[in-house]
Amino acid sequence: MVSNPQIIEIAIPLYLDRTFHYTVPERLLDQALPGRRAVVPFGRRKLTGYILAIAEESRIDNLKEIIEVLDQEPLWTPAELEFFSWAASYYMHPLGEVLRTALPAGINIRTRKGSSGENAELTGGKAILREKFYLPGPLSETTRRPGARALEILAVIRETGEIQASVIRKRFGSSSPQLKRLVELGLAEVREREIYRDPFKNRTIMRDTPRRLNRHQQSALDTITENLGRHQYSAFLLYGVTGSGKTEVYLQAIAHALENGKNALVLVPEIALTPQLTGRFQARFEGGLAILHSGLSDGERYDEWRRIRRGLARIVIGARSAIFAPLENIGIIIVDEEHEASFKQSDGLRYNARDLALVRGGIERAAVVLGSATPLVTSIHAAHNGRLTLLELPERVENRPMPAVERIAMKGSKETISAALATALTQNIEAGQQAMVFLNRRGFATFLVCASCGQALSCPNCSVTLTYHRQRARSICHYCDYAVPAPGTCPSCGATELTELGAGTEKLEFELRELLPLARTIRMDSDTTSGKGSHERLLASMGDGSADILIGTQMIAKGHDFPGVTLVGVINAEAGLGMPDFRAAERTFQLLSQVIGRAGRGETPGKVLLQAYDTEHYAILSASGHDAAGFYQQELEFRQDAGYPPFTFLAAIGISGNVEQAVTEQAEQSARLLAAIKQKLKVRVEILGPAQSPIYRLRGRFRRQILLKAVTRKDLRRLLLAWRQESRTSSTVRVVVDIDPVDLM
Ligand code: ADP
Ligand code: ZN
Fold it and tell me: Which of 104, 374, 433, 631 could form a disulfide with 302 if both were Cys (CB 3.0 to 4.6 A apart)?
């Protein structure tokens, strides 16, 4: 009798909507288990796929055999595979691609088996480092004398219990003969183990202990820990004004989870911008931390991945991709600054880590804490209807007042820095205090305009103007990096007189230096922070008082805690309001509130001067009046009237390509097909467009958009799935679906 061969289901990392069945040859039966990678024949190629499950049967005969299994341990747990499948289905993205996204790049450096096949666990070729460790041996005494230095070394080995060879070398110099002797005599044992590169080895961290919580913090913490104890999914919105001590609540909630044997996952918007936050975690928790920093090399990232997989890290901190970290036994997931748009991935798998945190929390039965001083309008709505439990920190710690905000109307004025702001800055510096000046545009002039023909210098590849950067003597496209020498000549008429319009941070810095020649100014924007560690250096000079004024774009608004800052200036506060995006008011309110919140976090109260042409817009009024409740109420009314989230669900279909005509035709064809399917399925979905995207040309591609709005996710999904089945795309055009889109530009 011939027994049926074992069939397994495999996901392939290609843009295919389905998974595949393969059979397992006899010799691989004990290895071909879910969560491991396998090499499989695919067409005429060999590909690495991911084993999802053992299949009962297959409708297809003549299944092919897998060739090899690459891993000796599973890469993922069943709960993680469930999570990835959920994400693949929700975002309508191939599971194989999702799994590939979830793996660290370093794993693919050179995946191979150890020579004997036995120690071929998660080997990634050169990514792995090994080192010798010494520990006390089975014998405690010997009649033969190992020598005085060897005895000294032995004492240290016994004292530490286990010590790395490199540490012994550092202390005793080269000690190989002594160590060898100790091992021969049975006084010490040697073991070889993998070691992990420590990306933060050059840092010194001061220990830090939990603070006494105020009553709001305590009550928030109590509610979270009570739920932690139940091991059930629970979701919170920790809504605390700037400087209210949210981080302290995170730290103590995590400590509680660890005490209960659970692990913690912490998501932050951009880890390079938050060295302070990671520093506070390192200061509070000894070891056991994995920090997934964007500055990690592939090898380092892979090391961290393996440390987490093996349970050696109990707290994982990282930006959005950390939501895929192989952390088991999760008790709590924190999403700090939950309102930040950077939690959304803008290409490939277009996931939102803030949303996925709730999903993973559900699968892991964990507590999920979304924290912000300026939550998403959507989160406020979810708190109103009970899907998130609201935890409020309405006051700053130690009863520090919120800063006083003065709005300065700039109508009719051509200055970058108003007289009022100039005076305030001068007085602040004279008083020996620090200031921040915010302008959400980099470069010197927003653009150059020809004085004779009136044309603005714009990018030949993108429908945007070029920004003039004076230090670099270039006009640059901020989207595709196209650059021309500047000031230069007008490309239309050849005239040499170009007028500078609009100011950026470079010009602001220039003017502030003229105004306050003695002040030590530094600038933080993507021009000054491209070097490794440059964020940290700039922030450190604010932290230690070696800078007086920090000038910058939205980078300076992010959660920094500088108690010495007593004055904040905001230039062109309404800059974001002109965006053709329904979230423009929300984003402006959030950004302004965050910037305002940088002032007066120490003992001296803070003051903010906010310059705007239109000082009466409700986003500006609410932010400057610390009236968040008023803002959310108005914004929710607007969203309801206009039919936008949280009252509807959105999906965007992006159609782009280099040939304009092909893009237009594809967009129209897609919209017609959607309309026909909508009729047939009788789903309630509004189809808007196809319209030109606000930035119609980007990096040479023409872009159109169809926006789908629905009252239920179910209708939206039914329409999209049916459309995808029937949709035919021409080879010159790319069509992508973005579920819950954040960037509509
Ligand atoms: P947020 O994240 O809400 O803006 P932080 O967590 O950065 O606020 O806290 C602001 C400052 O107050 C930090 O320096 C923090 O160490 C301090 N702090 C937090 N909680 C307390 C407390 N209970 N007592 C005293 N200081 C506190
Ligand atoms: Zn461009």
Answer: 104
360 and 235 in a common domain: yes
281 shares a domain with 255? yes
Report the distance separating Cα 184 and Cα 146, nearest Å.
10
DSSP string, 653-692: EEEEES-HHHHHHHHHHHHHHHHHHHHHHT--EEEEEEEE
Residues 95 and 144 in one domain: no
Q: Using CA atoms, how far apart are residues 670 and 654, in angstroms rounded to an integer?
A: 10
Q: What is the CATH number of the domain that holds 173?
A: 1.10.10
Residue 467's pLDDT band (cuts 50, 70, 90): very high
Residue 422 lies in a domain: yes
What does the alpha-carbon distance between residue 336 and residue 501 come to, in Å, rounded to a whole number?
37
Kindly give the distance from the C-alpha atom of residue 602 to the centroid of ligand 1, in angstroms, as a whole number. Answer: 10
Distance 246 CA to ligand 1 centre (A): 7
Strands 649-657 and 188-195, by their bridges, are: unpaired
pLDDT per residue as tens digits for the range 597-656: 999 999 999 999 999 998 999 999 999 999 999 999 999 999 999 999 999 999 999 999
Report the separation in Å between the CA atom of 398 and the middle of ligand 1, taken as the mean of its atom positions: 9
Q: Is residue 371 within 6 Å of ligand 1 at its C-beta?
A: no
Q: For a pocket test of ligand 1, which of 248, 252, 560, 598 has the largest count of ligand atoms closer than 8 A to its C-beta?
A: 248
Structure confidence by residue, pLDDT tens digits, 346-373:
999 999 999 999 999 999 999 999 999 9
Q: What is the pLDDT of residues 15-59, one digit of tens each?
A: 887 899 999 999 999 999 999 999 999 988 999 999 999 988 888
Q: Which atom belonging to ligand 1 lies closest to the Cα atom of 214?
A: 23
Same domain, 461 and 590: no
Q: In terms of domains, do 578 and 667 share one?
A: no
pLDDT in tens, 229-266: 888 999 999 999 999 999 999 999 999 999 999 999 99
Is 372 close to ligand 1, i.e. is its CB under 6 Å away?
Answer: no
Pocket probe for ligand 1: among 335, 372, 561, the residue whose CB has the most ligand atoms within 8 Å is 561
**Ligand 1 pocket, 701 CB below 6 A?**
no
CB 425 within 8 A of CB 512: yes
DSSP character at residue 399: G
What is the domain count for the chain?
6
Domain that holds residue 274: 215-398
